[in-house]
Structure formats: C-alpha cells, structure tokens
Design goal:
- The structure holds 2 protein chains of 2 kinds.
- By secondary structure, chain A is mainly α.
- Chain A contains 3 helices and no strands.
- The radius of gyration of chain A is 17 Å and the shape is elongated.
- A two-stranded antiparallel sheet of chain B has the order 1-2.
- Classes of the chains: A mainly alpha, B mainly alpha.
C-alpha cells in the first residue's frame, strides 16, 4: 500500500471531526480545550501533508507554518487554561453548561 | 435778543412742569400744592411782563425763534416761538387773570378732598394756554390747543363722581374735537400748499408774503377749515352746546375757561392766522372766509344773548353771555377790526373772570345753590361781592367811560358800522348789546336786590382769600379802560403798530352816544321788567319770571336753549347711535359669522388631520413597533449564552458554506 495524500487528508479530517465532536459535546472546559487542540493538530497535519506532496518538497515552507502554528497553539492553550482557572474561581465549577452570562 | 425774549418758552414750560410736580405730591400736601401753583403763575406773570416790556421798545416788535423738531429724509419739521404785541398782551392777561383765579380757588376749594389734583390741573391748563399764545407754528399751536382741550376735559369733569359733570366733560371734549378735525385738515392742506407751518420765518412763513403767494385760491378753504377749530373751541354756533354744560365744573374752572383760557384760544387763533383769512380782501371787499366769520359771529352773539335771558342758573347766564361776547369778537375780526376784537378779548378776560369769581362767591355764600330765583337781597349780606359784581356787570353791559367793556364794545360797533358788505350785522349787534344789558340787569336784580329768599337768607361774605382777587379784577376792569379810549388809543396802537396820539376830543364820538343809549335802554328795560322780580305781585306768583308770565311759549323756547341740544339729539346723535347699532349688528352677525365659519372650517380640518394621524400614521408606527419588538423577543431567545450551542451553529454554518462551495464549483 502506497502512502498517498488522500490517506493523510482522511486522517486529518477524522482528527478534526473527533476534535469538533469533543469541543461540542463534552461539558468540562478542559476537554473542550483539548478538542480545540485536536482540531488545530488536524490543520497542522494538513499543512505538513500538502507540503510533503507538493512539487517543491525541499524548501521547508510547510514545516515553518506548522511550527509557527504549534507555537501559537501553545500560547493559546496557556491563555485558555488561564481563562478556565479564572472562570473556575468565579463559578466554582468548570461545567460550561452553567456559564450563561454570554447571552445578550 | 434779551433774556426774557430768548427764553419765552419758559412761560408755558414752568406752569406745566409745576403741575407735574404737584401731581406727584401726596394728597395731604394741600398748602405746598397751592403754593407751588401760585409761585409758577407768579413766575409766568413776571416773565410775561418782562417780555411785554421788551415789545414796547419798538413799534411792531416781533421776535421769532425757530428750530428743527425732527428731520425725516430731506424734510425738516420746524417749530418755534414768537413774541409780538398780540402774544405779549395775551400772555399778561392770561397770567394775571390766572393768578387771581388760583388765589380765589384756595378759598373756594378749601373743603375739597382732591385739592392738590385741582391745582395741578389748573396749572397745566394755564401753561397750555400760554403755550398756544407764543407758538410760532400752526403745529405747535395745535399741540398746545389739544393740551388745553385735555385740561378742560379734566377740569370740567373734576367732580367725576357726579354723572352730569362726567357727561359735560365728555360733551366738551367730543364737541371741540369735531371742530379740531377741521382744524387738522386745514393744517394738512396748508402744509401741502405752502410747505411750511411756521407763521413767521424771515419772509418764508405761511403768514408772510412768500407763503401767502403760494396758497392762491385754496386760502379760503384752509381759512374756513381752521375756523372750524375756532368754532369748536370758542363755542360759536353750531358747536356752542358744550360751553353751558361746562358749568358742571368747579366755578374757578368756569372762570378760567371763560376768561383766560380755552374759549379765548379760538378768537386768538383767528387773530393769529388773520392774513390767511384776509387774503383776497381787495379794496375793502371782504374775503369770503371773513364773511363766514361775520355771520357765524352774529348768529352766535344774538342767539346766545336771547337764551341767556331765560336761564335761571347764575353760571349758565354767564356762560351764554360768554358765547355771545365771543360771537361779538368774531364779528369784529370778520369785519376787519382785529385790534378791536383782541381788545375786547382782553377786557372780557378781566371782567368775565370777575363775574365768574363773583358768582362763585355768591354760590359759596348760598351753600352751593345756583338758582337765581332762590337768591335775593345779597346786596347787604355780601357787600364786597356785590360791588365788584356790579363793576363786572357794567363792564359786560358796556357802560361807557369808566368800564373797559364799554370802550371795546364801542370800537367793535364802530368797525361793524363801516363794513361795506351789509348793514344787517351792525343792527343785529346793536340788538345784542341791548340784550346783554337786559339779562345782566335781570341777573343782578334777582341775586342782589329785593329781600332774601330761601337760599340767600343765611348767606355770609366770603373769606378774604376770595374777595381779594375780586377786588383786584374789578380794579383791572376799571383801569384797563385807560388804555382803551379813543382819546388815547394806546392798546390799539400797540396791537396795530401805529403810534398813539393823545387827543381828548376824539373820546367823544357819535358811537359813544349810540352805545350810551343802547345800554341805558337795556338796563332801563331790565329795571322796568324785572324791578319787582322774585317778589309777589298782584297778578303773578313770586317764583314765576315776569317774562315767562308775559310770553310763556317764547320763554320756554329760550329756556330750553332753542331746543338745539334736542335737535342734535334727534339728528347727529341719533345718527351716530343708529350707525353704532348697525356696526354692532354687522360685527355680531356678519363679521362674527364669517369668523366663526372660518373657525369651523379650521376645526373640521383639525378633526380630519387628527383621524389621519390616529388611524393612519399612528397605527402604522404602532404596528411596526409591535413587529420589531416581537422579532427582538424571538431573536433574543436564541442568545442562550451556551458557548457550545454557538460553536455548534458555527460548525453547521461552516458545513453549509462548504456544501454551497462544492455545489457551485
């Protein structure tokens, strides 16, 4: 079996859908963050795959974008975790069903 | 120009200013009010005499001061003051007579609660009249003329709580206003024709050659229109009706109106604008306007003298005698005897003031009874009043030699006799002189002779403050005759500008005998008819007038003032009443209906727009609001605040967009 682009795309789509499902269905805020990280990882996988199968695989463009993206995801995760801690201190819970103050 | 001449405007200004000061005083400051008024009058008299002395220095003296009142566009309206013999003589007479009347008023009005107001008005009246005399512009004269009218209105209606006084004040004001309308039109016409209202303006005034030349034929109409004002003010027929009613005012007011101010203004006006009247007099043929003046004067003189015979009120007799004398003055002016007319005006000012103040003294003594049939025998009870009254009566009757009225009347007869147009006025004036002597004799016999009757039984002589002015005026009436005699016609010369020569022989003139005979006839007839008036007779009860007993119909005709008031009531006043009613009806039903119809139209339009607003616009807006609110409620329910719901919706949206992309590409 030859490794093709489609396999990578299917894997990344599946990874994205799992991440999305986790973000939509879990009640715990940490799990939602983990879901979001998974969707980001799917996107990064797409970058790498498209780079590896592109006509110019020698220049490390895709890798650069992925590394940037991971760095930003790390920062984002730090902000997200800080938000979760702040929310927890306020509500004494991390169950997102009970956060309804965003309604207009 | 010396100081008194340059400041001649102070003469009217001081009394008017003082009247304003008095008006601002408290009601209780009676002494300061009377004192201020008298000081003002004394100052005016002193200034008048100073001005008078200046005019003596040169014959035909005339000092004119003109200034611009205001300017509109290119035209400047100019007014000014003039001091000439005519004005100076009038000034002295008015101020002197006014002063006597002011002093008399202190006694006469002693019990009145509005004492201060009375003196304020008196001072104002005197000041306004002084202003008429020195005005050098017809406009300025008119202004003071109307102020005189206002003052007379205030004073005739001084006892405003009496309905008759209020009505008399109204009557005087409205009747003179009719004449003033003519005066005003004449003034406008004069301004239109000559372009100036100044009397004297270095040859350019409307009474000087340049101005008169511009008038031409319109001068007659202008003169007649101005004469309308004089008719109203001087109580000439047919506007004489207000003058007897003006007796409702306090007696000093009557004296002021009849002697110094008001009625003198009309005669003075004609004398002042005499060049307008005489324009067209060529070679002794009288101009048509002067002819009108003569006939109006004759009618008035005779009619008023006849009415005076049948009156019972002491003041009304004097009022009609004033009307009659004013008519005589008008005749004199009309036939060309300007100096004679003015001399009679001056002499009349003294003795008529004397008679009215004497009548005031009598009324005061008889506890405000004015009916001469209830008096009698006052000769012994009020000796000073009697003697001074007798002087006044003889001066008014025209007794020659020692009384001023005799000389002036003789001069008027002389002028009238030589009128070329007709001799009828002369004979009528002669009849008027007899009648004057007759009614004055009747009055004196009723009031002072015989035995005391109801009102006069407890009469007492008036206080010194009232008798002193009487004595002063009586002396004036006698000594004034010194400058009037034809033997030394000083005043005549002063007024006309000719030097007067002393020539005792000219004192004795044929006219002297004519007037002597006439006066003797009048007084003799009076004594004959009324000698036993007021006393019971064999055939006649005491209270019936001998004349009434002999000629009841004629007497009642005269007693009711020839029914002229009633005639006016049936014609002029009835017409005014009718037109007022008509206007009222028009206003109420026609114009009001029109206005109401328009109002109703507006109301209907209002109802229409209200409905459009309520049902159309308002309902539409309401509906929109309800819809928006409902939509908002639905959409706000979508905002649950659940992050995961939002995220799900975003995912579904993304998916939908992807599908749309796939479908389109």
């Amino acid at each position: 079996m030859t490794v093709t682009l489609q396999i990578f795309l299917i894997v990344s789509a599946a990874l994205f859908c799992i991440g999305l499902l986790a973000a939509l269905s879990r009640r715990h805020a940490i799990f939602i963050l983990i879901g979001i990280e998974m969707m980001l990882a799917a996107a990064n996988l797409n970058f790498i795959a498209f780079w590896r199968f592109s006509p110019e695989p020698h220049q490390p463009t895709g890798v650069m974008v992925a590394i940037f993206s991971i760095a930003i995801a790390a920062a984002e995760a730090a902000v997200g975790l800080a938000l979760v801690i702040a929310v927890y201190r306020h509500y004494r819970t991390t169950n997102v069903d009970q956060f309804d103050q965003l309604k207009g | 120009m010396s100081w008194p001449v340059a400041n001649v405007w102070l003469i009217p200004a001081i009394p008017i200013a003082i009247s304003l000061v008095i008006l601002s005083l408290a009601k209780s400051r009676r002494q300061s009010a009377a004192g201020l008024a008298i000081i003002g009058q004394v100052v005016a008299l002193a200034l008048s005499i100073a001005g008078f002395l200046e005019t003596l220095q040169t014959p035909s003296f005339r000092a004119v001061q003109n200034f611009t009142w205001f300017t509109f566009g290119e035209t400047a309206l100019r007014i000014g003051w003039v001091l000439d013999p005519l004005a100076a003589a009038m000034l002295v007479m008015i101020a002197l007579v006014g002063l006597c009347i002011f002093i008399f008023s202190i006694g006469y009005m002693a019990d009145d609660k509005n004492f201060t107001r009375f003196f304020a008005y008196l001072s104002f009246f005197s000041g306004a009249m002084l202003g008429v005399v020195i005005a050098n512009s017809l406009l300025l004269l008119f202004v003071f003329w109307e102020l005189v009218g206002l003052a007379s209105y205030l004073l005739i209606g001084f006892w405003i709580e009496r309905p008759r006084a209020a009505a008399a004040a109204k009557k005087a004001f409205i009747t003179t206003r009719i004449g003033d309308m003519g005066f005003f039109l004449g003034m406008l016409w004069l301004y239109h024709s000559s372009g100036t209202l100044l009397f004297y303006d270095d040859g350019n005034g409307c009474l000087e050659s340049v101005g008169l030349a511009m008038l031409g034929a319109s001068a007659t109409f202008i003169a007649l229109l101005i004469f309308c004002g004089a008719i109203g003010k001087s109580g000439q027929f047919p506007l004489h009706v207000w003058l007897p009613d003006a007796m409702e005012g306090p007696t000093p007011v009557s004296a002021l109106i009849h002697a110094a101010t008001m009625v003198a203004a009309g005669v003075f006006l004609v004398a002042r604008v005499y060049p307008l009247f005489s324009l067209g007099t060529i070679n002794g043929v009288t101009s048509s306007s002067l002819t009108v003046v003569v006939w109006i004067g004759v009618t008035t003189a005779l009619m008023a003298a006849l009415i005076a015979i049948a009156q019972a009120d002491i003041k009304r007799i004097l009022a009609y005698s004033t009307v009659s004398q004013l008519g005589l003055m008008m005749v004199s002016l009309g036939v060309g005897g300007v100096a004679a007319g003015i001399m009679h005006l001056l002499a009349h000012g003294f003795f008529k003031a004397l008679l009215f103040l004497g009548a005031g003294s009598v009324i005061h003594g008889c506890h405000h009874e004015q009916d001469i049939r209830k008096m009698g025998g006052l000769r012994r009870l009020m000796p000073v009043t009697f003697l001074t009254y007798a002087v006044g009566m003889m001066a008014l009757s025209g007794v020659p030699l020692f009384f001023s009225g005799g000389w002036t009347k003789e001069e008027i007869l002389h002028a009238t006799a030589h009128w070329p147009k007709s001799h009828v006025p002369y004979y009528l004036v002669l009849a008027g002189v007899i009648l004057t002597a007759l009614y004055m004799t009747r009055q004196v016999i009723y009031v002072f002779f015989g035995s005391p009757r109801a009102a006069s039984a407890h009469a007492r002589e008036s206080p010194r403050v009232m008798t002193t002015p009487l004595i002063a005026l009586a002396l004036c009436a006698i000594f004034f005759s010194v400058v009037l005699t034809p033997g030394w016609p000083w005043l005549h010369g002063y007024l006309t500008g000719e030097p007067a020569q002393f020539d005792i022989k000219r004192s004795i003139q044929p006219m002297l005998f004519v007037s002597l005979v006439l006066v003797a006839a009048g007084i003799g007839l009076g004594v004959l008819v009324y000698g036993r008036a007021g006393m019971p007779d064999r055939r006649r009860p005491a209270e019936v007038d001998p004349f009434e007993y002999a000629q009841p119909a004629l007497f009642h005709f005269l007693e009711n003032k020839m029914w002229i008031d009633e005639l006016y009531g049936r014609t002029v006043i009835a017409f005014s009443w009718m037109s007022a009613r008509l206007s009222d009806w028009m206003d109420r039903y026609f114009w009001d209906g029109l206005v109401r119809a328009f109002g109703r139209l507006g109301q209907l339009f209002g109802i229409f727009t209200t409905n459009v607003d309520e049902l159309g616009i308002n309902a539409g807006v309401d509906e929109t609001m309800t819809g928006t609110r409902g939509l908002g409620r639905v959409m706000s329910s979508w905002h649950s605040g659940q992050i995961q719901t939002y995220l799900g919706v975003i995912a579904i949206g993304m998916l939908a967009l992807l599908l749309l992309y796939a479908w389109l590409v």
